[in-house]
What does this fold into?
Amino acid sequence: TTSPVLSDGTKVSDLIYPATREVQMRVLSDREIYELEMEKIFGKIWVLLGHESEIPNSGDFIVRDMGSDSVIAARGKEGEVFVSLNVCPHRGMRISTADCGNTQIHKCIYHGWAFRPNGDFIGSPVERECMHGKMMAKEELGLKKARVTLYGGLIFATWNVDGPSFDEFLGDAKWYYDMLFCRSDKGMEVLGPPQRFIVNANWKTAGEQSAADGFHTLTLHRWLGEVGNYAKKGEGEGEGTDLSPEMIGVEISSPHGHALRCIDLARKIKRLTGLDPATLSVEEKLNALPPAGMTRDMVEQLARNLSEDQLKVLTSMPPQVGGMFPNILFGFVYIPQPDGSVVGSMTLHAYVPQGPDKLEFVNWVFAEKDAPPELREKMLKQTIQLFGTSGMVEQDDSDTWPHMTQSAKGAMGRKITLKYQACFETGAPEGWPGPGIVNEGFTKDDTQWHWWQYWHELMTASDEK
Ligand code: FES
Ligand code: FE
It folds into this structure.
């Protein structure tokens, strides 16, 4: 690889130190590095834009950011989803100035060039007088189109039209994501439009944390055990003030920076049934504690959509939190309630870069399409309370990200390093049926280090890739 060189002479390849697992702090605030990321990461890989349930009807559209570019994701006549650059090919005006809406004709407000939801050029005013089309055919005047994939209804797009497929991008991690996004017959849908707010932080502070940093929960979110959902409420109730048991499980890393924390359900099942989970069948476990976001009536769908091995993992050590490279966090969590029951939460965040020290936090709340209204209501409330704009958990997280970004601007601060040395490569537990890089035990740094390795690989890749 020929590494890009920054204007002060630093090679991008020298920004991480593999032998000691360190990353130069300046990557969290440097504008040149940020611009390179927009080209080499967000300009190349699959980027999450939303969910198809946000645009159910023909002509529906949402406007989102794909790296540093604004794009329109729109539903076509046949139900397909298209993603086009929100830039008029005439003189560069933004085509849609709205956040969302419905139209079969996207008309530029400047000179009136018009486009279909699929990005094709329709025409312009005074066409006959050759206001355009003298030199180029109509087919060449459409909006720049991205390659699109729907996965579990999630809309992903990339500018790399000949690059790896979405399945190749997910790799072994797909086996685990399928348990969350592709487990039910009808799939999931959003509960209202996503919440969006700006945080004055570099997108990577939130992005790398999403690569399964469980460790910070013990300190930053300790209130969860002291007074929150995990606090002990009385004899036999609650989970106890110590959050460490929640940190034990299996972590999945990926050479593409994806990460999942599978957390042991044994304590919850034991508390709900009074029985040793090891003695229970998959059916009995599903009946005791359906997957987060499902009811007992819905669990029979799982066997139609997942393999036996996936069901085994889903009922004992399900993926609950983690990320998808580069800027997505998911939470499919089982949240203890004061009455001893458990309410699931299904949420997805994207940390959309808005500059070297600014990100837009986008929060989608999901439910299964056929979840009963009472459950949807409970899930929405629970998720907003914990993970939304005003969510108590993310109040903690979004407080640290700006500080780290600020630290990386200091003349000295930018020279020190971030450390990912708690990698122990403990390996998979005996009989673990899933693929990928698997490490069991207490949460550690392996997944986040793999996140940085992929960041580094993309940042130093030659442009033909
Ligand atoms: Fe859009 Fe001229 S810039 S029609
Ligand atoms: Fe957190």
